[in-house]
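Write out a record, focusing on structure:
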Amino acid sequence: MPEKPARKINWIILPEIPPKKEFSEILSDAWTILSMAKDSSQSFFITYSIRRFIDKDAREMSPKGTTSDVDQDHLRAALVFSCAGLDSMLKQLVRDCLPWLIRQKTQLADMLKAKLAEWARRRMRDEITSISEPEPDGRSIRKETELLRALAISSDAPIHTTVELCVEDLTGDSLQSTSQLKRVLSLLGIEQLNVSKLKEAFDARNQIIHEMDVNLKAKTRNRHQRKQRAMLELTKTVFAISVKVLKEVDAVIKQASES
């Protein structure tokens, strides 16, 4: 009998992240975070590819067809790590770049100071809403709030702490929606970047993280069944937009440096 042709592994490969040398030095840590996230997601797809090959080859089945529960978890993990990479990268960008941008003598710096001051004003307004009685010496709470707001954006104040509080306030534990992403991007002077394609990825990520991807209405398995192609495309979209964010911030940094 003629030998059957050897089966080949159907490798799933993510696009490479542009090299670090293409970006400004201040973006180094953010680039590292994104690169590590990409490597992690890639490792899940590699493991998925190998498992599918071994399982189907052992049973002489087509590489296509139903995925196992373990395979499904590898697809889920690849997407979750890509979203975690975007989340962590963006927060690092704000921590590293916002204080630097604010110190520049540019129109963007003035705009970012105004944004940070507005955030501080809202935050302090919320914190004093429960205060109904004036201070014993009759001092104005509103005037003290204005003073604190001024201190928050003073060049002599711990601006990094203010930025960190702002980022935490805007994102909570993690980025979970495109609206949160846009608010954080605006702190870096980025207003026009289209991130609408991330909605589907965020929705899937939230179902996986917060609901364990459970679907009790399903006839079997009781979990949402994720298709390989769809999960790959969602993961690629997250990394593609992450790279766009990195490039946009890099452009902002370089423009401010030339001013």
